[in-house]
Automatic annotation (TrEMBL):
This is ATPase. GO terms for molecular function: ATP binding; ATP hydrolysis activity. Gene3D superfamilies: P-loop containing nucleotide triphosphate hydrolases. Signal peptide: none annotated. Transmembrane segments: none annotated. It comes from Peptoniphilus porci.
Length: 303
């Protein structure tokens, strides 16, 4: 990971800070399995630097931006980089305080606390992701206000208070720019440093294809253009973000590599991710423009 980050241009001072952080904070071996395994690396030097610096300074971060800008990928990459166990909490309108902190449960005729993800992350020095935090009701989140600010405590009525482990950090994600998103209340935003997530740069996308596929130079250009064109259409609200799926695109490329035709592969990984026929047509049009009729599978891969 260090090598990758250096090749991205991430400052060595920050990476030394990461090493110190890892050295300083013990890990409970029982939770090692929660350190995510990374299949896809996050690309974007500036964002990496902001996120690493914020974590080193003891801050929580809010990743905000359009869908498919790699917010979850970055959150997992961060837990992996800092070697901390990760808890991801998907928030929605029905999320309540007990789904974060925990709830009463019976064990051997005794009432005990069944620890929720925030509680466990607080104890174990984990990173906890509040995924799509703006989907939750403010009341659900007000219980973690004291957890997220300088007090760094969890108050559980009946169980006393827990001071956060030094290594604990919270990473919230928030999508904006599509219907159904709510704004986040100020009290909450003030407890995070905000990282505005950029869309992936063309040069980074090319690097990503180079490192994750055996496409040839020309094909890398085509697939890069495909992703960027679809992304632009999504940002302009011509289509939803369902087809803006880099993982799906990489899977399509793998299918082609295995022997499935170009168009069938793209249907599986991209086109049919959206269930709206009008949207599918737009996506298919973009594909037709970039992949000329007589292009063959074999033309795409390194010989
Ligand atoms: N900068 C980036 N680096 C790596 N992958 C990215 C980047 N931007 C987008 N992606 C890809 O976009 C897709 C969506 O990523 P995800 O983390 O789920 O986005 P979000 O949570 O922002 O909606 C994934 O396939 C991811 O690999
Ligand atoms: Mg997400």
């Amino acid at each position: 990971m260090r090598k990758f980050l250096l090749s991205q241009g991430v400052s060595e001072d920050l990476l030394n800070g990461v090493d110190e952080f890892i050295e300083k904070h013990e890990l409970n071996e029982e939770y090692r399995y929660r350190i995510p395994k990374i299949k896809y690396k996050y690309y974007g030097k500036k964002t990496w630097e902001k996120a690493i610096a914020a974590i080193l300074s003891g801050d929580n971060i809010l990743l905000s931006g359009p869908k498919a800008t790699g917010k979850n990928v970055l959150a997992e990459n961060l837990a992996y980089l800092f070697k901390r166990p990760l808890w991801t909490i998907s928030l929605n309108i029905t999320s309540d305080p007990s789904s974060l902190i925990g709830s009463d449960t019976f064990k051997n005729n005794e009432v005990i606390l069944k620890k929720g993800p925030v509680y466990e992350a607080a104890e174990q020095g984990g990173f906890a992701v509040f995924d799509e935090i703006n989907m939750a009701k403010n009341e659900a989140l007000s219980v973690v206000h004291s957890t997220l600010d300088y007090r760094r405590v969890i108050d559980v009525s009946g169980y006393g208070r827990l001071n956060l482990n030094d290594a604990t950090r919270f990473i919230a994600t928030m999508n904006y720019g599509y219907i159904g998103t709510r704004d986040l209340n100020e009290a909450l935003v003030s407890r995070f440093l905000v990282i505005d997530m950029p869309t992936i740069a063309e040069s980074d996308l090319e690097k990503l294809f180079k490192e994750n596929t055996n496409l040839n130079k020309n094909a890398i250009k085509i697939f890069t253009k495909l992703f960027l064109d679809l992304q632009e259409k999504s940002l302009n609200s011509e289509i939803s973000s369902k087809a803006i799926d880099l993982r799906g695109l990489l899977s399509s490329i793998e299918l082609m590599n295995k022997g499935l035709g170009i168009r069938d592969s793209l249907e599986l990984g991209i086109v049919d991710k959206t269930f709206d026929s009008y949207e599918r047509e737009i996506v298919t049009d973009v594909i037709d423009t970039l992949f000329i009729k007589n292009i063959e599978r074999a033309d795409l891969f390194e010989g």
